[in-house]
Amino acid sequence: MTHDATTHGGRAALWPQPVLDLLARDPDRPVFEDGDRVVGAQEMGDAVARVVAGLRAADVGPGVGVALDLGVAPEAFAATLASFAVGARVCGLPPGLAPEQRAALLARADIALVVDDDRLAHLMTSPPAASVVAAGRPDDVARVTWTSGTSGRPKGCVQTYASMSAAWAPHPEQWPPAVAALAPRLQRYLVVGPLSSQVVLEYGVLALAAGGVLVAARPPGFPDAIVRHRATASVITVGRLHQLVRAQREHPADLSTLRALLVSGSPLAPSRLAEALDVLGPVVFHGYGQTETGMIAMATPGEMLENPAVLASVGRPPAAVGVQVRDGELLVRTPSQASAYWDDPQETAEVFVGGWVRTRDLGGLDADGYLHLRGRARDVVIVDAQLVHAGAVERVLAQDPAVAEAYVAARPDDDTGEAVHAWVVPAHGSVPDVDALRERVARALGAVAVPRSVTLVDGVPLTPAGKPDKSALLAPDLAPLGSHLASPPA
Question: Which PANTHER family does this entry report, sorted A to Z (predicted)?
Fold first, then answer.
């Protein structure tokens, strides 16, 4: 099923009007499966109207802050659409926040209403609104997508309603070639994360626009959920992709329905990407994007199998995406990019430059237009698609009186894509308590930032310029005082 872009008064309709119109256009089509329950478009539209009425009764309208703390369910999808429909400033809560971080984020984000399962059940008792038309104002903030906070302070990427309305997901005639190749494979899109997630929601809308249905993952794990729900597509992190490939080699499951796995978030070596295509078949779409920009590039299975050189890239940016290279760093411009960080003018000025977004990644385009990443201009570890800032972990570790110096670097990891590893120089006459160090990091930055290993060293190698050489810390011949392995973060 396809449809033309909805317009009102000769201009593209504001978000989420295209999705509301899609639900109204074909009321009998299924749009969401949750176990044995199948929710049709008309029922979903009615749920949206009920939540809209409940939000309005709670004085939620344009510019009012709403936080969504919901899982995967038809009602959660309805609440997400309804919050945008009333013109609220919508944010989801990132996973893994410590309680004090969560409270601080809600206060900082100026949230008037937190919609959790109990609140949503109450909102759903409202008689449905007589009509639901997107009430957002183009220049108002539509969504604040919060990072995990491993820099020590979560960053909120701000998108306006105008920006979200420029996204191509609901409009088949705007789909770039890679997205057009992907869309027909989303007939049964397995939802494995909260619908307030930027990536999960984007591909969910794409699936609906392609005539597909959203399927709640129960159980959530791979490959069981794919088999049980006859899923054709899902989003997967690099770590979980490695685990799925290993599981298929050891105990193959029937993945004959699977047609697309959307993988991004962490570095993926060409050899591991080739292995995934070999074991899983031509189903892996390798993409690159950021919270600040949305999708920047994507490589299709056909491209990678036809030309193995493409395996070393992250795909070709579509025509609507601008790419510049300045001093080795990639700057991009996308139709629906963020425009600022919430309540952070200094970081905003550093990253959002003259309509371009600094990615803080190093790279360039080859002669065929494929984008290659060559490193990072910032010191981060990408754990399960979440950014962990090395400096923040180092500062927390160094606060322990038994620690003289602390250094953090990334290593590839089959479970999480990359993992945090720490090297600690003990203070004179002290022996750091490694369990206490990990607990300190967990309290300050969340479980995702906890080091997978902590290695005690009597000094850190230096570069010729006299600066700490983190690459040398990763060398196998580094002599440690002791190494202490951590369990994977929960």
Answer: LONG-CHAIN-FATTY-ACID--COA LIGASE, NONRIBOSOMAL PEPTIDE SYNTHASE PES1 (EUROFUNG)-RELATED
Helices (H), 412-473: 434-445, 470-473
Domain over 7-375 is classified CATH 3.40.50.12780: yes
pLDDT tens-digit readout, 29-84: 999 999 999 999 999 999 999 999 999 999 999 999 999 999 999 999 999 999 99
Query: Would you kindly state where each structural domain of the chain is located, as residue ranges?
Result: 7-375, 382-485
Q: 126-166: per-residue pLDDT in tens? A: 999 998 999 999 999 999 998 765 555 778 999 999 999 99
Task: Kindly report the pTM of this predicted structure.
Answer: 0.85
Contact 16, 84 (CB under 8 A): yes
- 182: which 2 tokens? 């992907």
How many angstroms separate the CA atoms of 483 and 480, rounded? Answer: 7
Closest CA relative to residue 77, chosen from 118, 54, 48, 49: 48
* CATH architecture group of domain 382-485: 2-Layer Sandwich (3.30)
Rounded to whole angstroms, what are the CA distances from 9 to 6, 13, 135, 432? 10, 9, 15, 66
Residue type, 387: L
